[in-house]
Write a structure and sequence with these properties.
It contains three helices and two strands; from the N terminus they run αββαα. The chain has helices at residues 4-10, 38-46, 48-52, and strands spanning 12-20, 23-31.
């Protein structure tokens, strides 16, 4: 099992504000680097079979 604290520490978070067509909005940005190609990471986030894993 992965160490939860290490997983949380690996993500960088930022909170800010932005202007959208509907008006002002709060924004949340979460960045995480993975040792995988962008297509592989995107598939892990969008393919229902992989999301379940």
């Amino acid at each position: 099992m992965r160490d939860v604290l290490n997983e949380l520490a690996a993500a960088r978070r930022a909170v800010g504000t932005s202007s959208l067509p509907a008006g002002d909005a709060y924004t949340i940005e979460i960045r995480r680097r993975y040792d995988a190609g962008i297509d592989d990471v995107w598939g892990a986030l969008t393919d229902p079979d992989r999301v379940a894993r």
